[in-house]
Design a protein that fits this description.
four-stranded antiparallel sheet; globular; alpha+beta; paralog of FGE (formylglycine-generating enzyme); single chain; 19% helix; 241 residues; binds calcium ion
Length: 241
């Protein structure tokens, strides 16, 4: 009996197995090297934007950051089939992540998650393909006074009128090599700024449902942590076990 108890006690105290998953089930491991600057050769220029790059051809600046993080598979609240939340400031998004023991992802973590180990310009390849990610809706003009009204009902009504987002995970082709979904398009995502030249500690990535040229690179750095908008959401990260 004593032997049995001892062996039970040893098992209870045993360290986790080496192959234990570093991230919870609803997060994915994003790991690799992030090059701060990339140069690619554009092969399709329209409307002042690049819609395709020469495959596999790339020059990288010699400034790299090692990334190893667990990232939510979907936009907040990180549940497949659920409508992602919008109209939260960067400060509120930080607090929401903290309630789950997480933090906002950094700009570099987000870019590596989107580009994958091959550093693709879009999560799925070297050329933009219509309809793969949710960013082809027609732009609707917003009414500033309604959207920023102190009257909550007015604000909610305008947000609902502008909403053209999709439930999380409804564009399976818009999945990065690491398995993160909806990075490009759907709702734009708050990230913690990584580049020293940006003015705020808050940045935005991925464009939204009506920004067809969005890709993995390109940061919207023009909004302070107090800014809120009808198409802005976020996703969370945390350090691996
Ligand atoms: Ca997104």
């Amino acid at each position: 009996m004593l032997e049995l108890l001892l062996s039970w006690a040893w098992l209870a105290a045993a360290p986790p197995k080496a192959d234990q998953a570093p991230c919870p089930d609803d997060m994915v491991l994003v790991q690799g090297t992030h090059p701060e600057q990339l140069q690619r050769l554009c092969t399709d220029v329209r409307k002042g934007k690049c819609w395709a790059f020469f495959p596999e051809l790339m020059a990288q600046e010699a400034r790299f950051t090692r990334v190893r993080t667990c990232m939510d598979r979907y936009e907040w609240p990180n549940r497949k089939g659920t409508r992602p939340e919008v109209m939260m400031t960067f400060l509120e998004a930080e607090k929401m992540c903290a309630t789950r023991g997480k933090r906002l992802c950094t700009e570099f973590e987000w870019e590596l998650a989107c580009e994958g180990p091959k550093h693709l310009p879009w999560p799925y390849g070297w050329a933009q393909r219509e309809g793969v990610c949710h960013n082809d809706e027609r732009y609707r003009h917003y009414r500033f006074d309604d959207l920023h009204s102190t009257d909550r009902r007015k604000r909610d009504r305008e947000t609902a009128r502008l909403w053209q987002g999709a439930p999380s995970g409804s564009h399976p082709g818009c999945t990065s090599a690491f398995g993160v979904e909806d990075l490009v398009g759907n709702v734009e995502e708050w990230v913690a700024t990584s580049r020293r030249e940006w003015p705020y500690r808050s940045s935005l990535k991925g464009g939204f449902w009506a920004k067809a040229w969005s890709g993995c690179r390109g940061t919207n750095e023009s909004h302070s942590p107090q800014f809120r908008f009808y198409e802005i959401g976020f996703r969370c990260c945390r350090n691996p076990e």
